[in-house]
Amino acid sequence: MTAASMQQSLAILLRALKLPAFAHHYAEVAQKAEREGWTFGQYVHHLAELEVDERGRRRIERLQRASALPTEKTLATLDRTRLTAKVQKVLPVLCEGSFLERGENVIAFGLPGRGKTHLVCAIGHELVKRGHRILFVPTYALVQRLLAAKRDLRLERELATLDGFDAVILDDIGYVQQSRDEMEVLFTFLAERYERRSVMITSNVVFSEWDRIFKDPMTTAAAIDRIVHHATILEMTGPSVRSEAAKKRGENHPIQEVPS
Which one of 6, 44, 98, 155 is most buried, by most CB atoms within 10 A? Predict the structure, then answer.
């Protein structure tokens, strides 16, 4: 077998063994090893490191796609000066992700436009980077997904699928207040995850008004108890981010009067 045919055969074998980094780098690494006098063990070890790094990178990319997190709402784009001292203090701890191992929750409260969604998404992105499975979903969309599963007699299977995520980010829970069926599947979801899997919730509705979501005092109290029992509560205050942005756009692009 010639050297060229041997290299071609080796590339095919490495792809068959699902070692793409080996296949891509083995020739150039071999040249480097020869120049620097590496042992065979050093050569193989370096290729193995490249393979592990590549697999890790691809896994994070898959987790990012599966998370459905808004790509622009990251820690890098988060204006931390708008956060209270308490939120700034706890933010690095939440990004580290130990709360997921304990099945604890995170709830961000605040009026519309205070940056709740950006904050929890930024935490979500950091958790994905650490290899955690995160799902971002508007609460109304999750409820419709669960209602469809219940109608098709596959609710248990759908809940099992959602159980595969270390944390589910429920955005805008306060907008679910239409029917008892919606309340029931949402409560079932929260009860299934209690003390096992985390939820991260944004809400512009304070707990005292959650009976608008869960319809009756008993169910409301039970839902709040399950969510708050092990939870970090983040209060988002200050002026509306969107209102300030709109004001700046208006200052930068003042309305021109049309001459009469």
Answer: 155
* DSSP symbols for 22-45: HHHHHHHHHHHHHHHT--HHHHHH
Q: What angle do CA 93, 95, 96 make, to 5 degrees?
A: 65
203 is in which domain, residue-wise? 69-245
The partner residues of 167 in beta bridges, in order of sequence, read: 134, 198
Q: 61 and 81 share a domain?
A: no
- The answer to whether residue 250 is domain-embedded is no
Per-residue model confidence as pLDDT tens digits over 103-124: 999 999 999 889 999 999 999 9
**Residues 158 and 221 placed together within one structural domain of the fold:** yes
Q: How much is the pTM?
A: 0.81
Sheet with 231-235, strands from edge to edge, namely 134-138, 167-171, 198-203, 105-109, 231-235
- The residue written with tokens 């050569």 in the block is 43
Look up residue 51 and give its amino acid.
E
Nearest Cα to 201, choosing from 150, 135, 146, 113?
135
